[in-house]
Amino acid sequence: TVVTFDLNLIFPIGLGIVTLFGFWKLFQHVSAPTIPCVKVELTDDEKLDRLDGREKFDLSKLDNSPDRVYLWDPSTMDKLGEKPAMSAAQVEETVAKARVAAAAWKNSSFDARRHALRTILKYVLANQISLARVSCRESGKTVT
Predict the structure, then answer these.
(1) Residue 58 falls within a domain, yes or no?
(2) Which residues cross the membrane (predicted)?
């Protein structure tokens, strides 16, 4: 026996498949969780493109104060601040928290990871100027 196929059915079948795919994608979009908007307040210095008239960092402090972490812009030597150095116990506690977070990430679903990454993406795209400014200042690079 010979099986015949009516060529007049190709277009309606194709249109039906495309329509079903379109409705499926629309449903996915509508039912997807809303990506939250993350807000992080910038400090006054982080809002500025240039830090004029700042105290310059004294490199000799690095040898004299092992209990402090100094922050400065390597390209201008502007002092950005200082923080107490973490103790060994604080470092161990931080590493333990990171291990818990890594295990949670490892065991999370694809949808949960995608949601987290899209949240980060939304924040980075909305704040790329300030992120670049602060990153460049901390690394001694310039923004052009």
Answers:
(1) yes
(2) 7-27
Establish if 47 belongs to a structural domain.
yes
Are 72 and 51 a contacting pair, CB within 8 Å? no
Q: Within a domain: residue 10?
A: no
Whether 8 is in a domain gets the answer no
CA gap 15, 36 in Å, rounded = 36
To the nearest 10°, report the CA torsion of 12, 32, 98, 93: -170
Token couple for 133: 């400014």
- Among the listed residues 30, 35, 73, 29, the one whose alpha carbon sits nearest the alpha carbon of residue 54: 73
Number of domains in the chain: 1
Cα 119 to Cα 18, 35, 47, 107, 115, distances in angstroms: 31, 6, 22, 19, 6
pTM value? 0.68
Task: Scan for tokens 């400065």, then name that residue.
Answer: 72
Write out the residue range of the structural domain in which residue 80 sits.
35-139
Mean pLDDT by 10 residues, the chain (144 residues): 73 89 85 86 90 88 83 90 94 98 97 94 95 91 76
Taking Cα atoms as reference points, which of 77, 64, 95, 58 lies closest to residue 137? Answer: 77
Long-range contacts formed by 13-21: CB under 8 A, 24+ apart: none
